Amino acid sequence: MTDRDDLLKLVRDLAVVNGRVTLSSGQVADWYVDLRRLTLHHAGAPLVGRVLLDLVDDWEFDAVGGLTLGADPVAAAMLHAAAARGGRPLDAFVVRKSDKAHGLQRRVEGPDVAGRRVLAVEDTSTTGGSVLTAVEALREAGAEVVGVAVIVDRGAEKAVRAAGLSYRSAFLSADLGRQG
């Protein structure tokens, strides 16, 4: 089995939750993908890092992150996977949901992204709203966003591509035996 196969099994076993739920987009769904159950899991996190690095292997970027909270463990997993592989230094960053009113008042935390090529990530995305909010903040901070990558796409691809961004997902809803 490949890392991708192992990750898909863990997504199905750990993260898919049946039952009516309101998503962050405001949409109501009959199932939920709680990927923090996976991205913060001892076996899941390393797989997330390796699979997403493989997914975007042909893209050039030197920092990864997205809107807190869904993107944080994804970016950390990719940072650690890149370090374990060697040869490609990769920084991570966190995009706050709103401006910070104290301290350095930074919306994007971590190593400075100004003038750098960055990858925006998310654990799962239905409308693309969260990741597009992160992209906007990254551009305001002076970053060049090379694309968006997610673990599970529930329908965001069209909106992200309409915003002029390259987009990749490790899995689609159909890979989980679901629609939307």
Write up this protein.
By secondary structure, the chain is α/β, with parallel strands linked by helices. The chain is 34% helix and 28% strand. The protein has six helices and eight strands, in the order αββααβαβββαβαβ. It has helices at 3-15, 36-39, 44-55, 72-85, 129-140, 157-162; strands at residues 16-22, 28-33, 63-67, 91-95, 108-109, 117-125, 144-153, 167-172. The strands form two sheets. Strands 5-4-3-6-7-8 form a six-stranded mixed sheet, sandwiched between helices. The chain has a two-stranded antiparallel sheet with strand order 1-2. Helix 4 links the parallel strand 3 and strand 4. Helix 1 crosses helix 3 (44-55) and helix 3 packs across helix 4. Orotate binds at residues 126, 154. It catalyses: orotidine 5'-phosphate + diphosphate = orotate + 5-phospho-alpha-D-ribose 1-diphosphate. Catalyzes the transfer of a ribosyl phosphate group from 5-phosphoribose 1-diphosphate to orotate, leading to the formation of orotidine monophosphate (OMP).
